Amino acid sequence: MADTLEFNEIYQEVKGSMNDGRLRLSRQGVIFKNSKTGKVDNIQASELAEGVWRRVALGHGLKLLTKNGHVYKYDGFRESEFDKLSDFFKAHYCLELAEKDLCVKGWNWGTVRFGGQLLSFDIGEQPVFEIPLSNVSQCTTGKNEVTLEFHQNDDAEVSLMEVRFYVPPTQEDGVDPVEAFAQNVLSKADVIQATGDAICIFRELQCLTPRGRYDIRIYPTFLHLHGKTFDYKIPYTTVLRLFLLPHKDQRQMFFVISLDPPIKQGQTRYHFLILLFSKDEDISLTLNMNEEEVEKRFEGRLTKNMSGSLYEMVSRVMKALVNRKITVPGNFQGHSGAQCITCSYKASSGLLYPLERGFIYVHKPPVHIRFDEISFVNFARGTTTTRSFDFEIETKQGTQYTFSSIEREEYGKLFDFVNAKKLNIKNRGLKEGMKQSYDEYADSDEDQHDAYLERMKEEGKIREENANDSSDGSGEETDSSFNPGEEDDDVAEEFDSNASASSSSGDGDSDRDDKKPAKKAKIVKDRKPRKKQPESKKGKDPNAPKRPMSAYMLWLNASREKIKSDHPGISITDLSKKAGELWKAMSKEKKEEWDRKAEDARRDYEKAMKEYSVGSKADSHRGERSKKKKKKQEKQVKGKGDKKGATSKSSSSKSPAKGMSDSFKSKEFVSSDESSSAESKKEDSEEEGAASPPPSSEDSASGSD
User: Are residues 85 and 11 in the same domain?
Assistant: First the structure.
């Protein structure tokens, strides 16, 4: 049996909402990682008390109860996976996975049972529904009635806010069933009551979200923010992460508390609590506990009397009470030496911090993106100016974040950071070009040279030339250039009756007649490389024999399945390592056997290559012959076209009346044209015969035609 079981697309029920993630069962315990928040729930195998398999709305579910009363629910299993899970629980956890179906009779009376942190409403032996008591925010009693109020869940479309239980009176004296019911609920409910003295108080701290100045009262189980208008009570169980981030000016510090679920102010939700401190502020702090209690509870992490910078004291106290690590920026350093990048997100300017495992943006609105939820990043050119660029991040859920107006000097540092973290980069080719321009002009004065502006100018020139609207005064003569002097010549050649007046040379007519064929020839020359480019790219021939494998690879292919069966569940990397160890420990005689097999494979390969090379040479000879024939035929066709052009030249020099009208041709003009073309054909054929080897019978026949 495998040591681990993994399930994707499993849903954990938390406070009425279903959070998707991945579930992994191993010998050590059960691990669930939330895809949305990245939070990991780890249940040790020794803590498991009971496992229940039951049918739920999303297929089948697994309910786990621990010895300290906690309940974990996971849905999204298939019915066929029950046997596999049941065997795994028996083998590794020594637990029977019990099957219990929910009651669907629809009755509204039954029995309430309290088990750990769970209230179960049962009819007979079957449960109808269960309520985690940690979701209860308030419990009130009336005559024969108990009312439970719940925390609002922002992730769920519909939240259950209140449930009322009718408790019938009993005949027993001295026991009030309503009060007994309420006490059972309140003992496990998440009811925040600011009773007793605070451990310590921080006065008038500047808070960016929610905005204002607040007194922070530190209690053993929750944090109390007291402001002039609003009060917030934040249980430590809702704190997800802590961040301590230096401001770009090096004189202030951000302390960020990530919350799930968030705190609420009307319809506004605050997922992050951001405090701003000055590095110059100091404080002397005395905890409202005796030294023995401090030592017993915090185990040396805090002392009764402490002094230092205000931000250090707040972060130290929060770390000890919340029992979570504080995340600080990693090795990243921007162009100015700061550990952050100035940019804009949506309508506000802020700071983007590249961390070791994600990005965080402060402060309005705060954004935290983990590397494991990033699908790809993209570097885009700034929309308003070429002196900045945009950094885009798209998550696997399809959410896109665009951080704009980043100075181009930060590009190289940010690109190197993203590349080192092995994040997918969407436009890698474009970014390498951008990186090259950055490296080349990073130290130059921006007013003297702008790499992006130069590139835009070059692209503009190319577009103008393609559209025949180029106005640059270059010395080269191109077909798409516009020159007023030459335009007059073209117009005179085609439409003007007095064409000789525009000529600057002695043979004006012949010069003008030469212009059009010359342009056509140039166009053909420009297009030829485009046709030949794909022909020059030679890929690997699929018919060629495959190279022989080495002795080790032959042995590995033969032994791979055996290694897998001996080590079930082994990964590809571990399999390669194990194979290397086995090969190294193999005796010389066994290795010689595989060496002989490799030698035989090499001989077969050489023999096949000889046969392949002979066949490929014959094919290449046939291909060359066909190419030569095509070239000769093209030459002859081109020669005919040149001869026709030559006849028009000779006819224009012999007939003086051509300059008067091109539309009218006399019979004498036609006959002279035909005779001159016949003469030019003979001359051309004589020249070709002297320059080229004697043609084949087929070529001579086509030439005579």
Answer: yes
